[in-house]
Amino acid sequence: MSSLWNAQVEEIGGATVVLRLTAIHPDAGEPPENAEFAARLLADGLDRAAGATERASALDSRADSGTAAEAVAEVSVAERSNLPFSEHAAKERIDAALRERGLDPADASAWDGAFQTEWRELWQDPSRTPQATLTVRLREADLLDGLATGDSWESAAYG
User: Fold this and answer.
1) DSSP string, 11-58
2) Is the pTM of the predicted complex or chain greater than 0.90?
3) Closest Cα partner for 39 from 137, 132, 117?
4) How far apart are CA 21 and CA 62, in angstroms?
5) H/E run at residue 60
6) Is the separation of the CB atoms in 83 and 132 below 8 Å?
């Protein structure tokens, strides 16, 4: 499965973690405001943290079994930018920019190369990518052991 999100820990304390989410794939959609998404996202982060694979596996299992709310007390999404993302509209803006530069879609080789370059640049530009802040409060603070401010990871979390 392709990664959909990049998550970065902005703040962590007690049983609460604040994550900055950046979409890295057009299929990411809106960040879900539910326990299953939060559990999958945190499981991916913990899976990369030293000594935290057991907690990661437990969170992931809860998400898959529909019992994530037993571990995740509260989830909120704020500071949304560039959401909702429309892949169609983004591609139309790139097409228009290429035409303004004098490129002709009939020249498939030049057009496709320029389009792919612009598409990659879109996903590397934080001012244009979909982003949001996700605040997750867990029922047990020790579930976050192994994560620290500044940690980041890619995730295919969905919810």
Assistant:
1) EEETTEEEEEEEE-STT--SPP-SHHHHHHHHHHHHHTSTT-HHHHHH
2) no
3) 137
4) 22
5) helix 53-65
6) yes
